[in-house]
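Every protein is a chain of amino acids, and every chain bends into a shape of its own. The fold becomes a row of whole numbers, each drawn from a learned catalogue of backbone shapes. The protein below has been through that process, and both of its lines are reproduced in full.
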Amino acid sequence: MELALSERAREDLAQQQADEARVRRLRFLRTNLYEQPDLFVLDRIEKQHDWPDAQQVAEWQRLARWMVAADEWWQPMLDQWEKVGQGFNDIELQNRAMLALCDALQKLKGDDSPDDSSLASSIAEGRRKE
């Protein structure tokens, strides 16, 4: 006994398989490329068919240095800042926490110069009005 699909059913099945393959690829990209920017850049380079010119290589080198700096310095700092912010649901409390951290860092540095809390306060006031 042999089963046969109508033309419409075959088209639907082909579309479903293509959609499932696309979702698998997108999940792969999200977990492996977009969370690791260096792999994303390598993917872009691999997809380029022409050999890059000197200017493009220089741009990629700058991008690579920026990504290394982001991994070493900015990303850990942003991760910590996000953790601090999770404890405050109110924007006013988030602003006050930021000001307290800024003041603490100035004191830690031993910086006796006038602080910028008046500027930060005016920024916080402006956000409250929004």
